[in-house]
Amino acid sequence: NSRVLIIFFSKLTHLSIFLPAHLQTYLFAYLSDRSRVAAAILTVGDYELQVSLSEAVCRLTPRRDREQRANHWFPTSDISSAFCDIRDADFEVDCRRFLNFINCYQGDERRVYTFPCLRALLGSTQLLPPKDEKLDEFWIDFNLGSGCVSFFVDDPQGFLWVSIHVPKEEVECSSIQLTADGCTGAEAVLQLTTANPIMHHNIRGQTLELSFKGEYHRELEEAVGRVLNVPEKLSHTHTHTHTHTHTHTRTHAHTHTHTHTHTHTHTHTHTHTHTHTRTHTHTHTHTHAHTHTHTHTHTYTH
Fold first, then answer.
1. Distances from the Cα of 84 to the Cαs of 63, 81, 151, in angstroms?
2. What average pLDDT does the segment 92-109 reach?
3. Which ranges in 74-158 belong to alpha helices (H)?
4. Cα-atom radius of gyration of the chain, to the nearest Å?
5. How wide is the angle at C-alpha 107 spanned by C-alphas 106 and 111, nearest 5°?
6. What is the DSSP letter of 83?
7. What is the spatial distance between Cα 235 and Cα 177, in angstroms, rounded to a whole number?
């Protein structure tokens, strides 16, 4: 057990440089007690640290003993069962499922928000998810405990995954735009602007754009607000145009054309700006001709 702890202390030292001082202390103090380590998985608030703590518990506990011990470590049988579903041979994939489950299970008390990403752009360069046939989604984690956005990307120059961390201290502003088209459906696009460039190999940029399915935009707003604590904007654009034409054929004709254009622009910082533009054009022309010696022509234009 002491040898395993030494290995993990060495491994976690690299991870700990991304953590605030109080979380570093939290990490090493709790590693010596498996029950505390298991409890910390639920509360530590950083996905990568959750993975390392989960791996520590798995390595320190023989598989035959995990079910019995898990029932004491975790508060519900659902969480215990999910932990016991982690297979050593597929640890990364199974641990992702376990952590996604327990983080979502905690509802409003969760300290890590995770969403599947459609695409990620650093500046104008697309970042690719790790190449793993068992990996079903490109996951983005919003970590309340460490106060950062983190995710893994493909490393074209190596065999390991590379993680990108965006600490809240580096984020100058964020915006969430809800877009829609007839082909791909609604998308929630999060854009983060950082004070200093984000580096990934020879790629650098100060703008990170992350796109998600539109169904996540409410939770995404909550995650950004809680984790980054920076002003955010939400933008919606809708345009409606209606044209009505009525023609009546008797001795007079009426033509009415109504054009209504509504443009709504909402900007949250949290500030709401509503702009309504209405244009009404009414043209009425009445002409009456009588076969007497006089003619009356009345024209009204509004």
1. 8, 5, 25
2. 95
3. 77-84, 91-105
4. 30
5. 65
6. H
7. 5
